[in-house]
From TrEMBL:
This is DUF58 domain-containing protein. Residues 60-268 form the DUF58 domain. PANTHER family: BLL2464 PROTEIN (PTHR33608), DUF58 DOMAIN-CONTAINING PROTEIN (PTHR33608:SF12). SUPFAM superfamilies: vWA-like. Coiled coil: none annotated.
Length: 311
């Protein structure tokens, strides 16, 4: 896949992803003061770091690189190969973020500012730029109507590739294909490619009973964070009135009057986001919830550990 999507994939930033908007997030990430990386013990499963010390699990050995601690040389492999090798432990693995993006038809819904699908893409792009600035590789896996994988890459090239993929996938015609979250998480476990952390971006409507165990399984290999993307009508009862709705290219108008009518409507609409948020909370995962008007960058940087930019 090309690093940047073709022109026909660019949208208006409301019902379709605007590639230029995703790329522009790079400037905002550049103003963020990066938080120090935490050890696995300190982060309870979040973000890997390069710590030297004892009590860490051996991961692998690689050819010696300038600056490596000579106390950690793998003398047996060095003797066998004739080349210096350094032992790497669990905390030394190269940082890598895998973004899991929900592309179900339910994401193409919004009553304010933009569709959830567009907001999710903005969040994913912000995460990609943040990851590469932190020195990590970044990749993205789509689940739902799109079944796509962009393998992790490093540097600006990696973030640009993610932005291009987000725009290309969003430009595809919507379908009714369903993929339970548990299946998507199982697929993610098979394609981690050494990812040290995973960011799940979803509205939660695909969240099924088996997702709990899949999240636990995934958490044994990487730190998992969850960003729940919802429309304002899914998060709180709307004031009385007529509401024009847009879903999967179709428009309709809903009349909401009584308090009970508005509460029932909100509970039905908000079942997915509520279910995923409750699951993340019960598992002790880092998670956040945003609507389609929120600043996706702030939400993502909070989850991934960035500090606010200096004023």
């Amino acid at each position: 896949m090309n690093a940047v999507a073709s022109h026909h994939a660019d949208g208006d930033g409301r019902s379709r992803v605007a590639l230029a908007e995703l790329i522009a997030l790079r400037a905002r990430v550049g103003r963020v003061r990066m938080a120090p990386l935490l050890s696995r013990a300190a982060r309870s499963g979040q973000q890997s770091s390069r710590l030297y010390g004892r009590g860490m699990d051996y991961a692998e050995s690689r050819v010696y690189q300038a600056g490596d601690d000579v106390r950690r040389l793998d003398w047996r492999l060095t003797a066998r190969s004739g080349k210096l090798h350094t032992k790497l432990f669990q905390e030394d693995r190269e940082g890598c973020l895998l973004i899991l993006l929900d592309t179900h038809a339910s994401m193409r819904f919004g009553t304010r500012a933009r569709f959830k699908s567009v907001q999710a893409a903005r969040a994913a792009a912000a995460a990609a730029w943040y990851a590469v600035r932190a020195g990590e590789r970044v990749g993205v896996m789509a689940f739902g109507h799109a079944d796509q994988l962009l393998r992790p890459q490093a540097g600006s090239r990696g973030a640009l590739a993610v932005c291009g993929a987000l725009a290309e996938w969003d430009a595809q015609a919507a379908s009714d294909r369903l993929e339970p979250l548990s299946d998507a998480l199982a697929r993610a476990s098979r394609v981690l490619h050494g990812a040290s952390r995973v960011l799940l971006v979803s509205d939660g409507f695909s969240c099924d009973a088996s997702a709990r165990q899949r999240l636990l399984d995934l958490g044994r290999h990487a730190g998992v964070s969850v960003l729940v993307v919802a429309d304002a009508l899914e998060l709180a009862p709307a004031p009385p009135g007529r509401y024009p709705l847009e879903h999967a290219g179709e428009r309709c108008e809903v009349l909401l009057q009584s308090e009970r009518q508005r509460s029932d409507f909100q509970r039905a609409l908000g079942a997915g986001p509520a279910r995923l948020g409750e699951l993340a909370q019960s598992l002790g995962l880092r998670w956040n919830s945003i609507d389609t008007t929120a600043d996706a960058f702030d939400a993502v940087s909070g989850l991934l550990g960035a500090r606010r930019p200096a004023r």
